[in-house]
Amino acid sequence: MRTTGRLGIPLLALLGVVSMAVAAPGKGSPETGKKLYLEGCRHCHGARGDGKGEMGAYLTPAPSDLTSGKTQAKSDAELRKVIMEGRAGTAMTGFGTYNDEQVAALLAYIRSLKP
């Protein structure tokens, strides 16, 4: 049991560090995120992120207003899930081809839209 106890504390500490690193939100580049946003999101969500893009008028339900308190109150994990998987019952398709760095950049840009 002593061996297990000695190994248990360092192992738990290591697992704590690893899980904190995985759970910690990425520090994406808002500038890179803006470029990605303008390429892939602006047509529906609008240039300002207010949900008033040129395609948005044709969509039911309307695209989310990314500047709204409701959207900004969502966790990074919730927003990441929508970006990667889309939203059922809406025109929001998933962007599962984005890598972690791209998603972190998009999240940083979306957070910068907060009024």
Description:
By secondary structure, this protein is mainly α. The chain is built from six helices and no strands. Mean pLDDT is 84; it is low at 1-5 and 7-25.
Main features:
single chain; 6 helices; mainly alpha; 115 residues; 0% strand
Helices and strands in order:
Layout: H1 2-23, H2 30-40, H3 42-45, H4 69-72, H5 76-85, H6 100-112
Helix pairs in contact: 2-6
Concise summary:
This protein has 115 residues and is mostly helical. The chain has helices at 2-23, 30-40, 42-45, 69-72, 76-85, 100-112.
Mean pLDDT: 84
Number of strands: 0
> Can you give the helix content as a percent range?
55-70%
Shape: globular
